[in-house]
Structures are given as C-alpha cells and as structure tokens.
User: Fold Inositol monophosphatase from Staphylococcus caeli.
Amino acid sequence: MERTQLMQIDDAVNAWLETLDEIIPKLINDMVTTTKQNRFDLVTNVDKTIQQHFERFLNQHFPSHQLFAEEKLNNDINAKQGHVWIMDPIDGTTNLVKQQEDYCIILGYFVNGEPVLSYIYDYPHGQLYKAIKGYGAYVNGKTLHEPEMLELKDAIVSYNPLVINDATISDLNAATFGYRCIGSCGLDSMRVVKGQFGAHVNTNPKPWDIAAQFLFASELGLKMTSLNNEPLDFSTAGPFIISNKGCHADMLAILNAGDGYKKY
Ligand code: NAP
Ligand code: CA
Ligand code: CA
Assistant:
C-alpha cells in the first residue's frame, strides 16, 4: 500500500480517536454494565457505543473496509481478504468497571491478511501507541526503539495465574525477577513493547485481543508466537506470547515443561 494512502487513513483514524476524549467521560458517567456468559464476563455501554462509533466512521470514510470486532457477530467476514479492521472496543472491561483505569482500545488494520496499521489507545493515561508497517512504532508521536535484551532472570513477566497450574507458576517465580499483571492484554503487551516486562502470555486470546500487537512486535524486534513457538494466525488467535528476544525461549521451555502450563 502507498505511503500517502496509509498516512491518509492514519490521519482519519487519529481524528476519530480524538473524538473519544469527549465521548468516553460521558459514557462512563452513565455506565451500564451487563454480563455475557457468566458474572465475570462483563460488557458495558462504553464497549458497545465505541464499537458502534467506529463502525459508523468506517462506513462514512472507508465504506469498502470491514469490521471484525468483539461485540458483534463476524460470521460473514473473511479476515484475510481485503481491508479488515479488527477491534476490541474496550480491552480490560473489568478494570473499566471496577477501577476506571488500565483499559484501552485496540485496533489492527489488515490488508489481504497483512497488518499495516495498529493502534492501542490507553485513554485513562492519554497514551496512544501506534505502529505503521515499515515505519516503526510510536507513543504519542515519539519513536519507540527496540527494547534492550532482557534475560528472564532479570525480567518481570505477566500472565493470568487463574489459568496456569501451581507447578508452572512456581517454576516461573523461580526463573524470573517478578510477576505483574495489569489485566488488559493490550496494555500488558505494551509493557513488553517498552521493555518494562520481559513477556506477556495469554492462553486463550481472541483475534481482537492481539490484533495490534503483531505490528508492534515486527517493527520492534519482539517475538510473538503461539505457546508452541509457531506463527500465530491473526484471524483465529489462540495461546499467545509477546516477548523480549532474551526471554522467549526460556518462557516457552518453562510453560511446556512436564505436563505443561494448563490448570486442568
Ligand atoms: P479480566 O480482568 O477479565 O481480563 C484480563 C484480560 O484478559 C483482558 O485483556 C480481557 O479482555 C482478557 N480476557 C477476558 N476474558 C478472557 C478469557 N476468557 N480468556 C482470555 N483472555 C480473556 O481477567 P480476570 O478477571 O483475571 O479473569 C476473568 C476470566 O477470564 C477468568 O475466567 C479467567 O480465567 C479468564 N482469563 C483467561 C486468560 C488466559 O490467559 N487464558 C487471561 C485473562 C482472563 P476484555 O477486557 O476485552 O474481556
Ligand atoms: Ca480483550
Ligand atoms: Ca473487550
């Protein structure tokens, strides 16, 4: 895709993201929370309305582009064909509901199966992370550089302990410097992108949880693979790690040792 065309799309998306600064406070003020599959599976008017806004934006500015997003059915979309946006309108909904902090909007733009633009908007902290294929990654317009090599013994790592068995957690504790988890796959991944965490693991992400991370990883020399060290299919997702180059092999070795990482 031509650089000018990419930059035009980027300008339009930036302008759309700016509109969120007005919309989100009002939505939070009138927040209505409902549950989906169980009492921990939350969705709010904030998630739904942001997604509807983006859908309207695409229809108006880029009518040939398709939206593949969490709060809709995506049965009619082949994510690997044409112009496709994958969106998590709020990643970290539990954090939004319980803390009004540590949630983000995730957007990944794919052209015929290739990621070309990615955004993670950390609205509460006013940080917009962006990656452009072939042109690097930025936070609020400032260039992000490839993080320094981190060895696992010096690294903080992030994962959800509810889904990993005790033996594996104990091995991870012994091999790493420490554990932290923000509770937003997008923001935990950005900690790896900035060199603050050595790795983030999610054993069951959907396409929208990891749509933006592909481009950040490729632009910044990070590893992003399945937990079997295989390439990830963005259209189906599945067990995933985003990692500093210095931690990836050791993390996978620990997760796959013995009976593996699964809790049950
Ligand atoms: P949470 O705060 O609800 O979610 C933390 C992060 O994980 C968010 O990015 C969230 O995206 C995503 N997420 C939510 N449900 C998930 C699921 N079933 N599988 C994978 N990722 C998920 O997390 P929690 O309160 O600790 O846990 C809530 C439920 O999600 C539990 O059943 C937990 O086992 C499961 N979970 C599993 C993993 C995993 O690695 N397999 C990771 C996190 C949570 P949204 O905010 O967009 O939902
Ligand atoms: Ca999510
Ligand atoms: Ca979500």
Notes: The domain at 152-255 is CATH 3.40.190.80 (D-Maltodextrin-Binding Protein; domain 2). Helices lie at 3-29, 45-61, 93-99, 166-175, 185-193, 207-210, 213-219, 248-256.
